[in-house]
Design a protein that fits this description.
With 433 residues, the chain is an alpha/beta fold. It is built from seven helices and 21 strands. This is Beta-glucuronidase isoform X4.
Length: 433
């Protein structure tokens, strides 16, 4: 496993004893090829000191005065990682053979109330982006230099989170999120579920298997705080209720430690899957796909959207997509669609409502999109999707500076200031090899 670039953070006195907890690390190791073996498990802190150890293929390590994994901008020293080391000694005809495996481990908790998303018992507000694994030279796919550039831009922006729209990203991305403290909503490739036949038993069985694969791969990443099983399904169709009830229950069985959602653009009254999610994630594009050019209607429409969803379900809400297409360098006053002024104006109207509702039950906002990306050619797309706040070459549009000012303001308002916390045992998802 390549954890990516190094994480610079020493185990100094920055987490005072009042802020430490008894951490629990549950582990389970699968061994193939021999039934005659011994396992030694050790947990090391960032200075290489052994803080807990055990034997056997499963167990629980208790870490007194544990350093917690905190998101970027939520703590002075975020993203603290331990190293879980497993040493196997197997008896073979040729004599004893040893193998060794190490896994970065973060200790943290995630919980959801009817109006809050909590990390380590503290309210967390998602101020982040939606992304794509896309750029103009390599196209789609993983690219290390591009990833480092994107993470530097995320930190510049003051973003603390993103959604892997609309598919699992490369494992290296998850590893870097662990080390940077960037929170992830991990989404399956469940996109385009819009036909009645998409809800067949065959599709459901495949979707269950996809979630098994995703959870198995990513469950050990502390940066992953929520699973998203789908994006913009036709969740108003009659079979959707049973489909999402089954799918979400299965995902919770796979990983009881994380909330589960899907991202909807259906009407709150018609959505048959929403009763089963832990967090309501809503996509809306007011004054873009309807009411063209009329930004004055956004505040009323958005406030009404939030109020109806919350009144119906009493669950925290994330504005999981919003935005406007913008061609860099296009300027118009008064603002016209596709100009930089229109994108900024639309975002400002959304932010006025988000600032009201985040005091009540809205727990996040994710802009669509981090950067322009290529799509199939059509009369609706001018060389791809242009809703990025950065161009496909990662150059900022005017909206990037607007969002940067907002996100740093939000970070300063919601930053964890280190109030005293009673000592308690906190855990994380089981670590499985």
């Amino acid at each position: 496993m390549d954890p990516g670039p190094g994480h610079e953070s020493g185990a100094e006195d920055w987490q005072r004893p009042l802020l430490r907890h008894c951490g629990l690390v549950n582990y389970k190791v699968f061994v193939q090829g021999s039934e005659h073996f011994q396992l030694e498990v050790r947990l090391l802190d960032e200075e290489g000191k052994v803080v807990a150890q055990g034997t056997g293929d499963q167990g629980q390590l208790q870490v007194p005065s544990a350093y917690l994994w905190w998101p970027y901008l939520m703590h002075e020293h975020p993203a603290y990682l331990y190293s879980l080391e497993v040493r196997l000694t197997a008896q073979t005809e040729a004599g004893p053979v040893s193998d060794f495996y190490a896994l970065p481990v973060g200790i943290r908790t995630v919980a959801v109330t009817e109006n809050q998303f909590l990390i380590n018992g503290k309210p967390f507000y998602f101020h982040g982006v939606n992304k794509h694994e896309d750029a103009d030279i390599r196209g789609k796919g993983f690219d290390w230099p591009l990833l480092v550039k994107d993470f530097n831009l995320l930190r510049w922006l003051g973003a603390n989170s993103f959604r892997t729209s609309h598919y699992p990203y490369a494992e290296e991305v998850m590893q870097l999120c662990d080390r940077y403290g960037i929170v992830v909503i991990d989404e399956s490739p469940g996109v385009g579920i819009v036909l009645t036949q998409s809800y067949s038993n065959v599709s459901l069985q495949h979707h269950l298997e996809v979630m098994e694969e995703l959870v198995r791969r990513d469950k050990n990443h502390p940066a992953v705080v929520m699973w998203s099983v789908a994006n913009e399904p036709a969740s108003y169709l009659k079979p959707a209720g049973y489909y999402f009830k089954t799918l979400i229950a299965h995902t919770k069985d796979l990983d009881p430690s994380r909330p589960v959602t899907f991202v909807t653009n259906s009407n709150y009254e018609a959505d048959l899957g929403a009763p089963y999610v832990d967090v309501i994630c809503v996509n809306s594009y007011y004054s873009w796909y309807q009411d063209y050019g009329h930004m004055e209607v956004i505040q009323l429409q958005l406030a009404t959207q939030f109020e109806k969803w919350y009144r119906t379900y009493q669950k925290p809400i994330i504005q999981s997509e919003y935005g406007a297409e913008t061609i860099a360098g296009f300027h118009q006053d008064p603002p016209l669609m596709f100009s930089e002024e229109y994108q900024k104006g639309l975002l400002e109207q959304y932010h006025l409502v988000l600032d009201q509702k985040r005091k009540e039950y809205v727990v996040g906002e994710l802009i669509w999109n981090f950067a322009d990306f290529m799509t199939d050619q059509s009369p609706q797309r001018a060389m791809g999707n242009k809703k990025g706040i950065f161009t496909r070459q990662r150059q900022p549009k005017g909206a990037a500076f607007l969002l940067r000012e907002r996100y740093w303001k939000l970070a300063n308002e919601t930053r964890y200031h280190g109030s005293a916390v009673k000592s308690q045992c906190v855990g994380n998802s089981p670590f499985t090899f």
